[in-house]
């Protein structure tokens, strides 16, 4: 087992990508501290994954002291901490016209500042275990869609932090920091989000080739499979890396001439 007896905190792990990473980590022998915002989803996830090597903490990640409580719970329960996965995120539509200071600050607080604070809280224990930080970003970090301004800014900040700490922390604390930037993933909330944009219930069954050359978008389990590599010892000393997980190039790509679909709507 690639993660045997490793203790891992995964934020935002009661649904979507975080839940898939938790499931994959458990199957590889890890002990996982689940975290989420909704107690009902947390209980359902705990029931699905089992209680033998899992624990659940329900709290807003931006609440003062939440990172310390997550780390403290892991240490109290299992006596060590080997990795943290910063997955919790606020995915909201916005543009230059409707993004004000309060809105942008909230998105940054969840998507950029909370991950920083969890790293800082976990660092003494990760240093002892020569552990790992894995940040879950987004391909929108590179520039982002027109209607995802605040979200894209926050993921860009997270990516810069990954590269900065990924260079510094291996030298000062023996801790590696890397990041996965998922592309378009078929999570439960993405299904709902697109329906709210006016698409049908089965919108994901007919995706234009421009966005899904394979005929479908990514599954959470495919992101989780990549996450296991970065959490496992097999990734060796690699640090400060950001890996885009999408099915087409993000830069220098020539969009099909006959495409008129706007990703923000579709």
UniProtKB/TrEMBL annotation:
Superkingdom of the source species: Bacteria
CDD domains per record: SDR_c
Pfam families the record matches: adh_short_C2
Q: Which PANTHER family match?
A: EG:BACR7A4.14 PROTEIN-RELATED, ZGC:101858
Query: What name does this protein carry?
Result: NAD(P)-dependent dehydrogenase (Short-subunit alcohol dehydrogenase family)
Source organism of the structure: Cecembia rubra
